[in-house]
Specification:
Chains A, B: InterPro entries: FAD-bd_OxRdtase (IPR050260), FAD/NAD-binding_dom (IPR023753), Pyr_nucl-diS_OxRdtase_dimer (IPR004099). The structure is a homodimer. By secondary structure, the first copy, chain A, is α/β, with parallel strands linked by helices. Chain A is built from 12 helices and 25 strands. Chain A folds into 3 domains: about 170 residues, FAD/NAD(P)-binding domain, CATH 3.50.50; about 130 residues, FAD/NAD(P)-binding domain (3-Layer(bba) Sandwich); about 120 residues, FAD/NAD(P)-binding domain.
């Protein structure tokens, strides 16, 4: 008999991080993971690069498969198994085998809900036409890849100019498609401010992406074989043979909610810093769970792999009987479009306004490394400080090679409660092929001294 | 009549940063800079890339020349002018025009000493043979370039495996020379620990550099025309037709010392956080001045462009009547050898031992970005924490593209007095082409939790 029976619902980043952590602490606990998709522990963020062909096999996106978990970690990860009910009182879950359609109860001592997020899907007829895709699970990425292989679509429409939309635009351009990207806002990448987003729009337009901003998707039409052939917006209509819906995601928290577990306003499962839910012996982690925003000082829903992994580690640690706290997030994120790296952390100007924090900003243009060094490129850094405390509260960067990950220094400066002066005077690294003598983030900081 | 007469001795990073800062504050102060070399405000760090031909003109290494300073900033930068005496009592300096050999006194209200550093030159006969070079001023870089153009040396010997030695090895390999690098220590790059240095040695050996470690230069020999043709060490002798001396530098503080200005044990000019020397109305900045080491809590001599620029800004600010403090350095530094980026910050293991700080280390190998993404490479991160406080006190990184500048996050973590846990849990940026989901520095930090 095991000392303890752990059940984990969801076998991706958060769930498997927790499972692995628990196994490292307790060799003889029984750990069972139920995952409704065919895959465990994969890099959802890698899908655009698999679809474009840069990554030559979907299997490369899988960090560890169920066989590896079973053999090397003694973790039983059961794919095609969906938990459809939680009974917190009796500490059991009802599990449906999606291949046999049979359900049965399984009991737990400790339960982790790591059910992830669901992509937004517009409530339109024909949204399930062939050639219309959401990207969420690895399987959905494989579906897009196979559809493109088989049907050779020429005109792609991407709905939503967020991270996924931008990455898919790059991927589909590489496949020589005519790419149109729609956004209902007047600019894309709205986690950055407009003055940064404008540069991204210019870059994408130059690269051949047709941007249709301030347009709302109203209709999807399909041919008699069920293949998408047209979309309409509130402004016009467009022939298309591939539609990627990148309209954001919501926490997949319904299962938790139905069992009485408390949700936040954002519909994410409410957790404390130990990833405990409102119910004893039930933890939540990953996209389905909320994250405390360290600057906004509220719980937020942020669906990112980095956070899911940290959630999973902390949940697993606490489930294993250790003590670990997840303190919160800054909303750090990064992507790239071709050779343009795009990153942000902390509060944008818009968010500072919303949070009623008086702020100052500085935006500078510089060089990603010494301007005289071959292939040096541009970088634009925007810094936001609290007007009163002078502490850095946000940063945004766009630029060429080596630009994006500089956001980590700004994130570190926020965490260290540094002022612009502190950042400007910090001892950062310089050599001509890799930096300017004042790092671009310091050039921005100097403007705010 | 100007309100104030400023004299600055030395027209490179520190001196011209100070001059520019003073000019931004005071439009009508008279600012005169005396520089003994032919150039102002150049990137000494860029010389290896000019010598290799990557940067196609030495002029590109000059940020601003005397004409620009005069016309755009009303700063009179007089090149070929060497200050040979300071009279602090009468507030005047004796300046020698190196073209006419005439000297005259000039008075100041405020004086900045920014005389830089002098390269170590072994006390050997024939050290001044043709084909033997120190690299310090831009002119010395031009001299090397011209010597190579004219004499087409084939066998290059580099004495000293520090930053300059490693960078020059890359440069001379690119010029198809047979490169031998000598170091008197058993390993090169001794600001890093041996376990990191070993990897650099392997990489350099693979690339074709002959490493001769634990060998001391004893003799330089020249032919009858005065061209170097052989060097000897305590172990062997080597035919050579180019010798680069990269044996470190000393503060050029003799002028200050002769006028009674106090030096540190390191022979660098002693300054306080406002860059004030022991004498009223005399400041010092750049390689000739000391820097407070924030972890060792002692004044050190560290000759780096990043520090010189910050020194200059702070000195200029205080000279202009504002208040600004230079708090200190961490010893952050970076270089690259071909595609291997090399960086360090804070204390090495060796330095922690010397400072009697009980420590723990973790060293990890990971991937510079997602392992499945094309052209992903290796990264090795070493972290050092204070055993008692758990605070991060040092870091070393070697690895492929995008590895080196991650040292800035470790530097930020040191400045923010973060523990390994704080660093591991920080919200850093991830996208497969630019990072792993746990950034490599966080993977190292996790080992220390």
């Amino acid at each position: 008999m095991p000392d303890c029976k752990v059940i984990i619902i969801g076998g991706d980043a958060a769930g498997m991080s927790a499972a692995s952590k628990i196994r490292r602490v307790h060799k003889n606990w029984k750990i069972t993971v139920y995952e409704r998709s065919p895959h465990t522990s994969y890099s959802a963020c890698g899908m655009p690069y698999f679809i474009s062909g840069k990554v030559d096999s979907s299997e490369k996106l899988i960090a560890r498969d169920p066989k590896t978990f079973a053999e090397e970690y003694d973790i039983q990860a059961k794919v095609f198994h969906e938990v459809i009910q939680i009974d917190p009182g009796k500490q059991k879950v009802l599990v449906k085998n999606l291949k046999t359609n049979k359900s049965q109860w399984d009991t737990y001592d400790k339960l982790l809900i790591a059910t992830g997020a669901n992509p937004h899907k517009p409530d339109l007829p024909e949204v399930d036409s062939k050639g219309v895709f959401c990207l969420s699970t690895l399987q959905s990425g494989i579906d897009v890849f196979e559809f493109i292989e088989k049907n050779k679509p020429q005109k792609a429409s991407i709905i939503g100019g967020g991270y996924l939309g931008v990455e898919m635009a790059e991927a589909l351009l590489e496949l020589d498609m005519e790419v149109t990207l729609f956004d209902r806002n007047e600019y894309i990448m709205k986690t950055l401010d407009t003055d940064m987003s404008e540069d991204i729009c210019s870059k994408m337009t130059e690269a051949g992406v047709r941007l249709k901003l301030d347009e709302n998707l109203t209709t999807i039409e399909a041919d008699s074989d069920g293949y998408v052939n047209k979309i309409k917006t509130d402004k016009s209509s467009y022939a298309t043979d591939l539609v990627i819906l990148g309209m954001g995601v919501s926490p997949n928290s319904q299962l938790a909610q139905l069992s009485g577990i408390k949700l936040c306003d954002t519909a994410a499962i409410q957790i404390n810093s130990k990833m405990e839910t409102s119910h004893p012996n039930i933890w939540a982690a990953g996209d389905c769970a909320s994250s405390y925003h360290l600057l906004k000082e509220v719980h937020q829903f942020i669906a990112l792999g980095t956070i899911a992994n940290k959630h999973g580690l902390v949940a697993g640690s606490n489930m294993a009987g250790e003590e670990m706290e997840f303190r919160g997030v800054l909303g750090t994120a990064i992507t790239k479009f071709q050779d343009l790296e795009i990153a942000r952390t902390g509060l944008s100007e818009r968010e500072a306004k919303e949070a009623d924090i008086p702020y100052e900003t500085a935006t500078i243009k510089s060089s990603n490394f010494a301007g005289y060094y071959p292939d040096s490129g541009d970088i634009k850094v925007k810094l936001i400080i609290d007007k009163k405390s002078r502490h850095i509260i946000g940063g945004q960067i766009i630029g060429n090679k080596g630009s994006g990950k500089r956001i980590d220094v700004i994130a570190s400066a926020i965490m260290g409660k540094m002022t612009a002066f502190d950042l400007a005077m910090m001892d950062l690294a310089y050599v001509p092929p890799l930096s300017t003598v004042w790092d671009p983030v310091q050039i921005a900081a100097r403007r705010l001294i």
